Amino acid sequence: MKRLKRTFTTDERNLVFDLWKDGAGFSDIGRVIEAKPGSVFTILRESGGIKPKPRHRNITHLSVSEREEIRVALSAKKSIRAIAKMLNRSPSTISREVARNRGRKYYKAVDADNRANRMAKRPKLGVLQRYPELKQIVIDKLELKWSPEQISGWLSFEY
Does 59 fall in a domain? Predict the structure, then answer.
């Protein structure tokens, strides 16, 4: 019998981080949110025990309501250009949105929005991982007991 993966609401996740910050253990937190200690550990491990900043959607990205309007217009057999004009967006934006989300025939607004959220969370390399020479400079300055603020200021001045 396959076990279902427990999903936690934003409020539950926030409570986990708040309780963890207050010094509660995995078992104590698990009792409060009615979950196993391993699940609590998994939530905390994802961000290293530090509460992540709340995510905000960029205003230039398509919203759920715009995606729903695209779906309705596609069902009404409107052209990509007509939809773009209706939404005051570029036709290429609408075309790419439809193409990346199963095409005109199978486009679904909710699925498209969920996919956009999932893709926005993809792992991204940090600056120090992308530039090993910069990483070495930062390490050298840290070994000289420079503070992160001093290093940041020096880098912006020097480069």
Answer: no
